[in-house]
Amino acid sequence: MTVSAPATPLAPEPLVPRAGFLERQWRVWRRKKIGLASLVVVGFLLVIAAIGPLIATHDPNRNKLTATLQSPSPAHYFGTDKNGRDIYSRVIIGARISVVIGFSAVAVGITLGSAIGLISGFVGGALDYGIQRVVDAVMALPGLVMLMALVSVLQPSLPSLIVVLSIWVMPRAIRVVRGEALITRELDYVNAARALGATSLRLMFRHILPNVMAPILIIASVTVGQAIMTEASLSFLGLGVPPPAPTWGNMLSGNNRQYMTVAPWLVIAPGVAISITVLAFNMFGDALRDVLDPRLRGS
Amino acid sequence: MNLSNDWIVGRRRLSRRRALRGAAVIGAGVAGAALFGCGGGDGEQPAPAAQPKGAAAPAGSPGAAAAPAGQPPVAVKAADFQKMPLAQMFKDLDPMRLRYLPGQVEALKKGPVTGGTLQYSRDAPPTYDVLGVGALFVSSFPGTHNSLLTFEMNGDFGPFGATKIIADLPQGYEFVDNTTLVFKLRNEPIYWHDHPPVKGREFTIEDLKYGVEALKKAPTQGPTYRDVDTITTPDAKTLVIRFKQSAAYFLRASATPYQWLVAKEQVEDGSLAKWAIGTGAFRLVKSEPTVGIRFERNPKYFKTDPIYSTGKKLPFLDAIDGKALPDLATNNAAWAAGQIDYGYAVNVSRTDVVERLRDRPDAVIVMVPPPPSYFPLIAMNSQTAPFTDVRVRRALSMAIDRQAMIEGIAGGVAAPAYGQDWTYFDRADNPWPWTMKELGPYIAYNPKEAKALLQAAGFTKGLGRPIELGFATSDSGTNAAVWLAMADFWKQELGIEVQISMAPDNPAFAQKLRSKGGLYQDLHVATPLPAWDPDDWAFGQLNSKSTANFYKVNDAKIDELSEKQQRILDVNERRQVLKQLMDRDLDQMYRLWGIDFYKFTIRSPKLFNFADHYLAWLTPGWGERKLEMAWKA
Amino acid sequence: MWRYVVRRAVGAAIVLWLVSIFVFVAVRALPGDAVLVKIGESGRISEAQLDAARRELGLDDPVMIAYAKWAGGFVRGDLGDSVIQEGMSVNSRIRKALTPTLELSLLSAAIGLPLAIGLGVISGLRQDTWLDYPLRLAAILSLSVPNFVIAVSALTFLSRRFAYAPPFGWVDLWDDPLHNLEILLLPVLISGFSVSGTLMRMTRSSVLEVMRQDYVRTARAKGLAARDVIWRHILRNALISVTTLLGITVAFMLSGSVIMEVIFAIPGVGRLTLTAIQQRDYTQIMGNTMFFAAVVLISNLAVDMLYGVIDPRVKLR
């Protein structure tokens, strides 16, 4: 819809057509060069995760005992490990696992966390107090160590890792969403809607949630990177997804670290992969925040 | 934690499984002559079957000082080692070379240096209660206690395989008849360490009796005394043990390092777990978990220098200092920086050794046969389908290309594995592990035959379902490479899908093994138990009535043979029975064997008389009296 | 103010109680127990002997009773004895392990915090300039490269190249200050670097946020020198957000030090807890986590009260 009007004394500037949502977003993003780059990297990562098996050159778990610890070559782009497995293929398939772990943990954690936070903040009272104390309790536990205990209880596996990481992600989402809910529920338009007879549920999801989306998305983006990092730490301590799964964390584990001096590619490949991924998600989160939080839109 | 069990420069993180492996010394060699009551004691000729190759001049004689012509230099360059063929390693890295180290030659002229502190990587144990359930772990801390018996070991002067059993604390022992064993106490006085509640008092025959009886009642040591009838002390210098029936295993089992002689006061006031107080060469002075452990010379130790004939009292070292270094990278860094004096290596590949040599090019390196119980194997739940069918078991074994694993994973420095002490048998002086031929037809790599067997057993595609393989996280590192390779062979050759089930740590793994129904559903990674007598691997691991039979083997023939070998005092006869048992075990393939890595010890050139007995898992692991005789320049 | 503190204290007590329940249950749910840890895989020990050992250690009580016993002791200030480490009390082990961790954390903070805040301010003031980008990159790198990779690489490189390694084998600061500091040099640098990343970014964004505020624009428009503006307005307000982070940093330090402690063989609290879990040392685990939770709660309270002081807008009710 276009509206144009000639300049008049009361409207010193001509009104320009309001650009579409996407176009406005693009303009903002275009100026954030780092944000754009990170968006590209994240996209690239997702693509690799999706088409992984198509671009891997070997079966990531196939042993080849005649070709152990080979340096990078045209046959094996990133070389081979102690069992003769192709590292390039393992990194590619590992991307898939890391993405699954990261995204699932964050999705589950943030969704549940937001729901709980919303209810907690909106309903208030004793329920809110109780939930907040529980959140405090979870956050008062020594992080990595408790994660290890949880993984030990559930037996290390892909699903249990996702469960544990979700639990780790949740408190932050609960806190932030609750905070926003507390603020938003006092706002006039919410009270107005309530006066008009809107049910609590409707109030929560229709009115409060949209305000809360921005911080949720920002947290989500950064948390994916953190989740991947935490998975690597857990694998370092022996509690990641069991071998022979080619997770990046596993590839940095003791088995490969001890050959760092003789076969550095064993460690460089997954190390760089983790770093770039976490980097990208962090920058993406930054950019997201700059974009979504108008107060920060810069020079 | 992900604990690689490869190059261990000292002690790594406190992993029980690792510790257990470290806490193993396997009996090897012949004790037969001693069993026959030839009156043990120092100075007797070791039985011929166990002499390591290339044995040269006897210990201590001045004539040993000069290196014979053509003896290779002791230092090996990393680059050379990388390319060294196995045959050359047998020659150049033979521990018998060590006696020609310049320092040793000097020592034989002048005498060893008294003083100095040995630095290594070791954490303090949580308990010193050797009479409790954790004895295996505790006993990897040598030096504070003496036992009734031990293997003769003289550091760099050999023997490197278990040959002769000698009395440790007593003066000597003698089999008066097949069921009566007599020990004589020494003439010189022996004192306990000066630490409350024992406070340095003199050791009496009552102490000896008490100690032996305590061992008899203890859970780990008890089975060694299962055939003991009475323990008496007819006079102040004599202890007599009478057996109900002949116990062929007793001497070597009794020499196992966890047979500590403890003090009555400690047992009675409950302080046994808190501090190690013995009669040994070193006193415990500091024990701080996660920090380290320290021992200092016992000034009243009763043994004198058996090697250099100086008449000096042992030990030579002033102190032994162990630092807790939980991570492998930390260990390697400490080694490279010269903070620890030696590294030993079990389950390592050629590459690991090369790297440690690169860290310290002046290091002295020695290769010895591995202990026959340190390697991982895959245990099958032979009571559940499909593993009840012997054809399936044989097929699984034949699908594994062990030679490829030896070359690919170990870099050639390994041998096919089987859990029985090969040095016990008559193998013409060969101390090195089993050969493929000795291990029967089902050890050979024969994928066609394996497929045929599976089909004969009724399986057309794999085993019809994925099979579960359980392990504990501490089984990573080179061991992991081995069983990962094994799982991959099954996938490639037989189309079997293996699902790996990882226990987060050792207690979780132990829990799974012991829980109702026990064992993992199908397969799990295990190690043969550490021991010093073949009885443990024959009876202990395979007899259906034994509590150590994790594998739930229930074979009438094995039961019969294992019970029989307990009683046969004649070594040759016993060997034959044990061999029959071994053949039967391999024929039925109750367990899936991998590879046994050769063992390397790498040490500072300033450390002398410290060669590894090749039964020791950890250095200075199980009960080696070599700590008493080691010295630092 | 006092009402606030009392309210928080009551809340903290509840939280501690919840923590104790979570951990108690979780720990009992861990497969295997202390007795299995003691025996390893020694096959000669029968179930009967194991049960006897369990009785001796007091491990055979049903969960509720065990909890009641523990809670009773806790309220009296008695955390009990370590299950695995014969004869040592939980308290004494925590105390001994505390010194190394505190030293590591404080030194890392002492290096990381000023660095982070300083660089964060600079980066914020010079947003999107040539100074900003590399600083942001460094900060992001510190977050994205796993700290154990940095640590292991550093150790390996230094030991291989220069035959240098920190002189492992802990000594306390007062026993041998040089030795102690040399042990901590590398881990402090790496920890400090890892932590400073988040802080730097937080500082930067607070600075940016403050800079956009109207009152800052007004101050600048009124002609106040940039430096005055920065100091009086920006820094003060930026520090408010940073203060929250301090609380988190304390917690992070205490728990996140596990990996550094393992790699550098520092006998700290993190490692103690890790070992306790691996050894199924129930009393030790409970003691450590309660201690840690208490520290976190106290530091949160302190931070909030600090808020009340720094930020006049905040009223502690």
How would you describe the overall organization of this protein?
The complex is a heterotrimer of chains A (299), B (633) and C (317). Chain A is mainly α. Chain A is 69% helix and 0% strand. Chain A has a single domain (43-60, 68-296), classed as MetI-like fold, CATH 1.10.3720. Chain A is flat and about 75 Å long. In chain A, 51% of the residues are buried. The model of chain A is unreliable at 1-7 and 295-299 (pLDDT under 50). Chain B folds into two domains: 1-91 and 365-597, Dipeptide-binding Protein, Domain 3 (Dipeptide-binding Protein, domain 3), CATH 3.10.105.10; 117-325 and 604-632, D-Maltodextrin-Binding Protein, domain 2, CATH 3.40.190.10. In chain B, 27% of the residues lie in helices and 16% in strands. A five-stranded mixed beta sheet of chain B has the order 17-16-18-14-19. In chain B, strands 1-12-21-13 form a four-stranded antiparallel beta sheet. In chain B, strands 2-11-10-9 form a four-stranded mixed beta sheet, with no helix packed on it. In chain B, α17 packs antiparallel against α18 and α18 (556-565) runs antiparallel to α19 (571-588). The longest helix of chain B is centred in the C-terminal third of the chain and has 18 residues, at 571-588. By secondary structure, chain C is mainly α. Chain C has twelve helices and no strands. The radius of gyration of chain C is 24 Å and the shape is globular.
Structure keywords:
heterotrimer; B: 633 residues; alpha+beta; Dipeptide-binding Protein, domain 3; D-Maltodextrin-Binding Protein, domain 2; 2 domains; 4-stranded antiparallel sheet; disordered N terminus; C: 317 residues; mainly alpha; MetI-like fold; 12 helices; 77% helix; 0% strand
Work out the count of structural domains of chain A.
1
CATH topology of the largest domain in chain C: MetI-like fold
CATH architecture of the largest domain in chain C: Orthogonal Bundle
Radius of gyration of chain C: 24 Å
**In percent terms, what proportion of residues of chain A is strand?**
under 5%
Oligomeric nature of the chains: heterotrimer
Shape of chain C: globular
Give the termini distance of chain A in whole angstroms: 30 Å
Largest sheet of chain A: none
* Largest interface, C-beta within 8 A: B-C, 70 and 53 residues
> Number of helical runs of chain C?
12
**C-alpha end-to-end distance of chain C:** 7 Å
